[in-house]
Amino acid sequence: MNPDDLRKKLEIKSDPIVHVASDPLTKKNIKLSVSNHITLNRAVTFFNKEPETIEWIRGFNEYSIFYDIGANIGVFSLFAAVIKNCKVFSFEPNALNFGELVKNVNLNNTLNIIPYCIGLSDTTEITKLFLRDLTTGSSGHSIKNSVDYSLNPVQRLNSQGILSITLDDLTQNWKLPQPEHVKIDVDGIEHKIIEGASHLLSTKTLKSILIELNINKVQHRKIIQKMEENNFWYDSKAIETRRKDKGFNKGEANYIFSRGY
After folding, report:
1. Where are the domains of the chain?
2. What's the CATH number of domain 51-259, 3.30.930.10, 3.40.50.150, 3.40.50.1820, 3.40.1170.10?
3. Element (H, E) at 137
4. Which residue among 61, 114, 207, 221 sits deepest, i.e. has the most Cβ atoms within 10 Å of its Cβ?
C-alpha cells in the first residue's frame, strides 16, 4: 500500500469513537473509548453483563477505597468512581488494555482513579505476562507461566515484561491505602493473589471481595475455605443463580464475600 493510502486510513482511524453509557438509576454518564469489537461489546453491555457486580458496587459507601484487580479497560473502575465517588486503584498488567484504561479515565475526567500497569500475584518480582492475543480489551492472559483458563500449560508466542506484586506488599511495604472493597478478575491466578494477601484478609478495614471462581478447580475451592477462615461469608443461593452451566468456563460464578462482623 502506498503512503498516501496509508495516510487516508490513518485519518479515518484517528476519529475517536466514544460510547456513552447512562446509569439507569443515577442518570450519570460514563464514556468509553471504542477501538474494536471487544471494547464495543464491553461498552454496550456495561450494565447487563455482570449485574451482580454493578449492584455490589452500588452498595459501597461513598468515598470508599476500591481495588480493581484485572481492571481491563476500566468499566467497573469507572462505575465505582463516577457513581459512588470511590477512590479507585486500578491494576491492569496488559499494556494494550492499560492504554485503553488510561484513555477512559481521562475521557471521564476522573481524578479519583489511579491506574497501575502492574500484576498481582503471590510473589513480588519482575516477571512476564503471557498474552493470549494482541487485541485491546481481550482477557485470558497469564502471569509468570503460560497457561490456559484451566491452568494447563500452553505455548504462547506473545509476552511482555511486568512487575508482579502481592497485595500485602502493596499495602504494607508500598503504603497504598488499605482497600475496603476488592474485585479480582484475573482468569486463573486468583488463588495466588489470595495467597499473597494473608495480612490484608485479617484486617477489619477490608469489608468485601468479589472473586470470579470456578468450583471445578481445586485451587478455587481452597480460596473459599481461606475466606471462611477469615470470617467472610457468601450467599450460596445467589451464586447458584448466576453459575455458568456450560461452555469452557462451566462452574464459574462471581462470589461476593462479605465480612462476617
Report:
1. 51-259
2. 3.40.50.150
3. none
4. 207
